[in-house]
Specification:
The chain is of the alpha/beta class. It contains nine helices and twelve strands. Bound molecules: nicotinamide-adenine-dinucleotide (NAD). Nicotinamide-adenine-dinucleotide is lined by residues 6-7, 9-13, 33-36, 38-39, 59-61, 81-85, 100, 104, 123, 125, 156, 179, 181-182, 188. The site of nicotinamide-adenine-dinucleotide (NAD) has 30 residues, from helix 1, helix 4, strand 5 and strand 7.
Length: 304
């Protein structure tokens, strides 16, 4: 089996490449990444010399490059992690998010329907459901309406709709997963947990949006990778799978936990003006992947 993993030099993509290269020595894993500010080949050091791994530099929104690559490689499976992924950057530069997350996804889908594919998997996010604090009460199952709040989540929602439309219109074999916040090795220091950790280690202020009461559901990255592995092997075409832990934490509690683990004082915390359009809480119902595919969270937040 030949698998193209896009965005495999980023945080979750590189963890997924490690997982697949080590678990399936008979598969060919091709890591396709543009190496933006978020991509780092150092993340691949432990697998770079494995015989079943290759890196290709390129842009998922570059149609000629993608079609030439598919013509040459004829992959069986494509797993699309490549994205502009930081909400704050999407608020200052939305267009870059539309280009990679929407146009890039469309380019990959067109290459898949031109050259044939056993499975296209789209890595999406729980943020497409929007804020589940104020009005929605319960947690969102896969059929909940999409209600993204910022340009990042809007571009991810647009991509999800295109993926599902290519299934309906062209019969493309696709799956979509929507995961909660990840943490773990190789995450960029612009994201909450690494940023707070490195600032605390350097005794720098820890900037927390608003009053810090926004809640997030955290999943250790290896558990996300095992879920995507299960979906590409056993998921049903045309289906969406939510992936989440059962551990909600307010941002301020997460930051205080990091400070206490590092033996630092809470006086490093600085509350800042809230993020524009900041979602209070996400809550997804991930019983489908647990019941249908037998996926389980294996790493508790405190241990991770
Ligand atoms: P990341 O920003 O760490 O990595 C993104 C990778 O994509 C980088 O290596 C970058 O170089 C590459 N890339 C960007 N534009 C590209 C392009 N045009 N062509 C090819 N490569 C390109 O992101 P991440 O946190 O690892 O997230 C990966 C995926 O998972 C994203 O689709 C994101 O929406 C989704 N997701 C992330 C989280 C999370 O908590 N981080 C949660 C749920 C879903």
């Amino acid at each position: 089996m030949k698998i193209i993993v896009t965005g495999g030099a980023g945080f979750i993509g590189s963890n997924f490449v490690h997982h697949m290269v080590n678990k399936y020595p008979d598969y060919e894993i091709i890591n396709l990444d543009l190496l933006t500010y978020a991509g780092n080949l150092e993340n691949l050091k432990p697998v770079e010399n494995k015989p079943n791994y290759r890196f290709v530099k390129g842009d998922i929104a570059d149609r000629k490059f993608i079609f030439d690559l598919f013509e040459k490689e004829k992959p069986d499976v494509v797993v699309n992690f490549a994205a502009e992924s930081h909400v704050d950057r999407s608020i200052t530069d939305p267009e870059a998010f539309v280009r990679t997350n929407v146009m890039g996804t469309t380019t990959l889908l067109d290459a898949c329907r031109t050259y044939g594919i056993k499975r296209y998997h789209q890595v999406s996010t729980d943020e497409v459901y929007g804020d589940t604090a104020a009005d929605k009460g319960g947690c969102c199952a896969e059929n909940a309406p999409l209600s993204p709040s910022n340009p990042y989540s809007a571009s991810k929602a647009a991509a999800d709709l295109l993926v599902l439309a290519y299934h309906r219109t062209y019969g493309l074999p696709v799956t979509v997963s929507r995961c909660t916040n990840n943490y773990g090795p190789y995450q960029h220091t612009e994201k909450l947990i690494p940023l707070m950790t490195v600032n605390a280690l350097d005794n720098l202020p820890l900037p927390v949006y608003g009053d810090g009461s926004n809640k997030r559901n955290w999943l250790y990255v290896a558990d996300h990778c095992s879920a995507v592995d299960m979906i590409i092997h056993h998921g049903k075409n045309g289906e969406i799978y939510n992936i989440g832990s059962r551990e909600d934490m307010s941002n301020i509690d997460t930051v205080k936990l990091i400070l206490s683990i590092l033996g630092k004082d809470n006086s490093l915390i600085r509350f800042t003006a809230d993020r524009k359009g900041h979602d209070r809480r996400y809550c997804i119902d991930s019983s489908k992947i647990r019941n249908e595919l037998g996926w389980k969270q294996t790493v508790a937040f405190d241990d991770g």
